[in-house]
Specification:
Layout (H helix, E strand, L loop, with lengths): L3 E7 L4 E6 L5 E4 H6 L26 E8 L4 E7 L4 E5 H6 L30 E3 H6 L1 H14 L1 E5 L7 H6 L5 E2 L7 E3 L15 E4 L11 E9 L6 E5 H11 L1 H9 L2 E6 L5 E6 L2 E3 L5 E4 L14 H19 L4 E4 L6 E5 L3 E5 L8 E8 L1 H12 L2
Parallel strand pairs: 7-8
Antiparallel strand pairs: 1-2, 2-3, 4-5, 5-6, 8-19, 9-21, 10-21, 11-20, 12-19, 12-21, 13-18, 13-20, 14-15, 16-17
Helix pairs in contact: 4-9, 6-7, 6-8, 7-8
């Protein structure tokens, strides 16, 4: 943690400048500092939530005076026109610094994430179910890897129905859908979904026809005595970045225009959605992949003159996703499960023989729970 050494009020009190022992000085605006004051009149002592609203902050708020206490590692600010005195710790100021070089228009991803391919995914993050339940340190390490790679495995899970929800509860909450709290992935006749057959499934994200989509998917193997049905996962963010490198125009088409997705169940289920296959935040952060050949509905949001190029881009993206060099392949054995960030990592299976039995169970959960668990475990 670098230390602040001195402090200056600048722009007639509209901001402060904090000098650091290491690194360039950092600026903070008076409005921003007032809004984020940590005193008990601004934030509830009990729950930490903000008690004031933006309209409670005077438009002409400025800093009358500022002092630094290097021993206490804090600064104290006096505001005008409301005569408020507020203290901030060095640590808080550093963690919440925003005086960074402004982002240009480049595509970027969260710095906690690491993209991977077959060659670079050396060790798949894996944990034993018992360890995940009993060892918080190992659980935290594994959850961080799950977040970082968008993919992880678990071994030693009970080969019993419903276990998949116990796995979800290790780091979050089950998302119930029309498929139930959890679902059997078995080959059935008159299957309501192609996943419930013995056909192969191209790498895909689940349920793109749902809005919001489930952001975590867990698949757990209970039985397997058939040939085939091997698993494969692909980093969709890596595939998107590869597409961008190959053909920026294609990348732009898939991120600019929405595809449509749809699923019609037997009764009372008709899900429809509209998402770009490659999702970007307004500041060009790569945030989501929606890709599922079985569920793409007629795409009607691409103008006529762009549609053929859009299809070329879609084909190229699919080619990249299908490349063996992109995939991590594995066999899911009874007692194993794998978890994916369903907004990033695609999963696939090879076809399998009808003879013998294969029984997987799956369930959905969400990433907010995962991130919350990582945060709270990190503080222990
Ligand atoms: N199941 C397994 O998103 C999909 O339609 C893939 C999902 C039916 C819940 C299969
Ligand atoms: C699914 C799915 C993979 C498998 O059910 O969504 O992708 O191995 N299943 O059966
Ligand atoms: Zn799936």
């Amino acid at each position: 943690m670098s230390l602040f050494t001195s402090l200056k009020v600048i722009n007639s009190g509209k901001a402060i400048l904090l000098y650091r022992k290491y690194g360039a000085p950092l600026r903070y605006h008076s409005t921003w500092l007032r809004d984020n004051a940590l005193d008990s009149k601004t934030r509830d002592k009990n729950n930490g939530q903000r008690l004031i609203s933006i309209s409670d902050i005077p438009v002409n708020i400025c800093i009358k005076s500022a002092s630094i206490d290097v021993r206490d590692k804090s600064i104290t600010l006096k505001f005008l026109p409301d005569k408020k005195e507020v203290k901030f710790s060095f640590k808080w100021l550093e963690v919440n610094a925003y005086d960074k070089k402004s982002n240009n228009s480049e595509i970027w991803i969260n710095s906690n994430l690491k993209v991977w391919s077959n060659a670079t995914m050396k060790n798949v993050p894996v944990i034993n179910y018992k360890n995940a339940k009993s060892n918080k340190k190992l659980l935290l390490k594994w959850l961080k890897s799950l977040h970082r790679y968008g993919f992880a495995k678990m071994t030693g899970c009970e080969k019993k129905s419903g276990t998949v929800t116990k796995i979800a509860k290790l780091f979050g909450y089950v998302r119930e859908t029309n498929y139930g709290k959890w679902f059997d992935v078995k080959s059935k006749t008159n299957a309501v979904n192609l996943a419930y057959t013995n056909l192969g499934l191209q790498a895909h994200t689940d349920n793109p026809y749902r809005d919001p989509v489930p952001t975590i998917q867990i698949l757990h193997c209970i039985k397997k005595s058939t040939k085939g049905g091997d698993s494969k996962v692909v980093d969709g963010f890596n595939a998107a970045l590869k597409l961008k490198k190959k053909n920026k125009k294609y990348f732009n088409l898939l991120s600019k225009y929405c595809s449509r997705f749809e699923f019609k169940g037997k009764k009372n289920v008709h899900l429809k959605s509209r998402f770009p296959m490659i999702g970007l935040a307004p500041d060009n952060e790569l945030i989501s992949i929606h890709f599922n050949n079985r569920s793409v509905a007629p795409i009607v949001d691409v103008p006529y003159k762009e549609m053929l190029n859009y299809y070329k881009a879609y084909r190229k993206f699919s080619d990249i996703i299908n490349k063996p060099t992109m995939a991590v392949n594995f066999k899911l054995n009874p007692g194993d499960c794998f978890i994916v960030d369903n907004t990033r990592v695609l999963h696939a299976r090879t076809p399998y023989r009808a003879k013998g039995s294969r029984w997987l169970q799956g369930c959905y959960a969400d990433k907010d729970g995962l991130l919350s668990k990582i945060s709270t475990l990190s503080k222990i």
